[in-house]
Description:
Elements: E1 2-4, H1 10-26, H2 40-48, E2 52-57, E3 60-72, E4 93-100, H3 107-115, E5 122-126, H4 131-139, E6 143-149, E7 155-161
Amino acid sequence: xxxxxxxxxxxxxxxxxxxxxxxxxxxxxxxxxxxxxxxxxxxxxxxxxxxxxxxxxxxxxxxxxxxxxxxxxxxxxxxxxxxxxxxxxxxxxxxxxxxxxxxxxxxxxxxxxxxxxxxxxxxxxxxxxxxxxxxxxxxxxxxxxxxxxxxxxxxxxxxxxx
Length: 162
């Protein structure tokens, strides 16, 4: 089950992101979140804005297995794309900060099962070294569209599904 995150979830959310960082470092992606991204302050902001979601165990709603950001909004870092083009200029949903505790198989598919009924147009980005996410995105129907740059200038592979 997916629900909006609340501040009571905060300690578990921090732990899930720490687990995801360790997993990425172990699987060939040591730099994507090495700086502690997403920060505790950013996560608090996302919770308060009601844009951070948690995935709970279907049999025990108190057991959180993953988190992600989702909103139907224009992402400023997606305004410019190089080495390609977006597939559509229509309004879209953005998915960011996908992380799980590793206990749920096909976690991105579960995220998409929540997001897709709200909009059939989705955008997401990932680090060049995050081969696992790239594979999972393509397996779930996303197309690589080009390169976007984060606010700090770091490049990311941009994906879209419409």
